[in-house]
Amino acid sequence: MAVDIPRETAAPATTAPAAATAGAATDTGTGTGTATDTGTGTGTLKRDAIGFLDALAIGLNATSPAYSLAAVIGPVVALVGVHAPGVMLASFVPMLLIASAFHFLNRADPDCGTTFSWVTRAMGPTTGWLGGWAIAMTGVLVVGSLADVAVGFGLLAVGADGLAANTLVREVLTVLLILLMSWLCVRGTEVSARFQNVLVLLQVVCLVVFAAVAVHRVYAGTGTPGSVRPSAEWLNPFGAGGTALTGGLLLGVFAYWGWESAVNLTEETRDSADAPGKAGLWSTVVLLVTYVSVALAVVAFAGTGYLAGRADAEEDVFAALAGDVLGGWDWVLLLAVSTSALASTQTTIIPASRTALSMARRRALPARFGRIDPERGTPGTSTWWVAGTAIVWYVVIHRISENALADSLTALSLLIAFYYALTGIACAVWYRHRLTRDLRSFLLLGAGPLLGAAMLVWLLFESVTDMADPANSAGGTAWFGLGAPLVIALLLAAAGVVLMLLRRAASGAFWRERRGTHEAPRPHRDTETATTG
Known about the structure:
The protein contains 20 helices and four strands. The protein is an all-alpha fold. Strand 2 and strand 3 form a beta hairpin. The longest helix has 33 residues, at 125-157. The protein has a two-stranded antiparallel sheet with strand order 1-4. The protein has a two-stranded antiparallel ribbon with strand order 2-3.
């Protein structure tokens, strides 16, 4: 299905008044893909650094498929039982609708700031700033946890169980890993893409082997005592219903989160108007097949009782199952989770750093966050800022307790639902004048994104209600009489509002942009055809 979408007349980095006055570099128009420098310490992101398949690999790895599935499968089964595969299927619906919104918005405004840029232009600077803050904070909250999982499972894969259980060793190796992944991001987008291509292939192969062996053993009668043959009824997400379905869907959204990293690289991707958006769409489809297949295999082999009983173990459930399914080849699954978390450690830094860059060049953040290495064409300052903040958050929270670290990840789901919902609403607002032209435009540009946003807003409010009860936090932790995850999310939101007000007081140029800069651009010559993938 296709719909005519006008392309932007010029990249926002060069057309926005704030960008010009902030000293952002402009493209030389040579098409060489090399970064240029204005002499102010800024520059341009390297053009045409990667292609569609590279963007697809980055989008897939940013979700950390093996790690995400390992982390959510136990809790989802505890909520909905054998309908866990159905919940993973249902969670795909809002993701596909929001991915479509990303695709069409990127065609009109290929800006590495994605949600920040689009929401700003469609709904105003204050809402856009808060959307950008949410994206930046998701990176800060999760990078340390991903690196910790990569280290822990990597040590288990090579038989170093003692080191994996040593908290100090894991913390040191986790910090070093974050620094290494950040260095790779700064070294160049092509280097990052080649590394990601290897990792995505490795983890997918490992997951396929695990799922195939698990299903074979179920049908061969050599599974666990709780093994049960898969049924088509498992794909019904409404089997459990009620609040169980709500909780399961939110966990599913967390599992899919990250595919938009491909769109954050839009300014560095060949065919920037189409390829990144399509990569995001295809990422969600590939993830759907992977998640449903592996979830079916895991539930069939282990049984709901075993998985529900290990719901609090999170990703450790795969470590426990590896030996049961693969025997002496358990390192295959452990390696899958490790490489998954390793890849996502790097790719999760990308959206946060590119969003900070986009905010800086429109003067929503201090100009130093917009500095780009003139030789490598990467945002070094914002990348190292994300890495440093993530390290501090990880060390402090990890020192408080393992429960606090788990609660920070639960809080992450609220931020994800918030900025995804904003993007869906922004798409409908952006194209509001086109919605009545034909049915396809109405469905793809308005109804679809708004439906996806409505589903996420519903999940957001339901989750806030659930998280208010301390009994629903890790270990039943209560902060100020509320569940720890909700308190963390509220504190981050409050910090964002305070920083926004301070920035507005220090330099209100971003908030004084002409209203016209927030509206949809005029069509560029004849309209061109965009597809949904």
